[in-house]
Design goal:
There is one protein chain. The protein has two helices and two strands. The protein is α+β, with helices and mostly antiparallel strands. The chain has one domain. The chain has a two-stranded antiparallel sheet. Helix 1 runs parallel beside helix 2. The longest helix is centred in the C-terminal third of the chain and has 15 residues. The two termini are about 25 Å apart. The structure holds S-adenosylmethionine.
C-alpha cells in the first residue's frame, strides 16, 4: 500500500473479467488497486473550482490547482507512457 493523502480503504463494488468498480476515495483506489503504468485512458468529472458552492464540497478557484495536484500525480503514476 503506497502512502497517499486519500481516505479510508475503497470497497470493491462490482467485477467482471473486463474490469472492476470501486466505491471510495479515488486517491485511495488509484494507490491500492491500480498498478503503476497500467492505464490507457482516464476520464474524470472532478468537483470544479466554481464560485457557486455545491453540496459535494467543491474547492474555491484560488485553491483548486493545489487541491487537484495529488490527483494529477496519482493519474500520472497509473498511466502508461502512451496513456
Ligand atoms: C462534478 S461532480 C461529478 C458528477 C458526476 N459526473 C455525475 O454526473 O453525477 C464531482 C463528484 O466527485 C466526487 N468526489 C470528490 N472528491 C472525490 C474523491 N477524492 N474520490 C472520489 N470522488 C470524489 C464528489 O462527491 C462529486 O460527486
Amino acid at each position: 500500500m503506497r502512502e497517499i493523502a486519500g481516505g479510508a480503504e475503497a470497497r470493491l463494488f462490482y467485477q467482471t473479467k473486463l474490469g472492476s468498480i470501486y466505491v471510495g476515495d479515488s486517491l485511495r483506489v488509484l494507490a491500492d488497486h491500480v498498478a503503476p503504468a497500467s492505464v490507457d485512458l482516464i476520464v474524470t468529472s472532478p468537483p470544479f473550482g466554481l464560485v457557486r458552492k455545491k453540496p459535494y464540497g467543491n474547492i474555491n478557484a484560488d485553491k483548486y490547482v493545489e487541491w487537484f495536484r495529488p490527483f494529477g500525480e496519482a493519474f500520472h503514476q497509473v498511466l502508461k507512457s502512451t496513456g
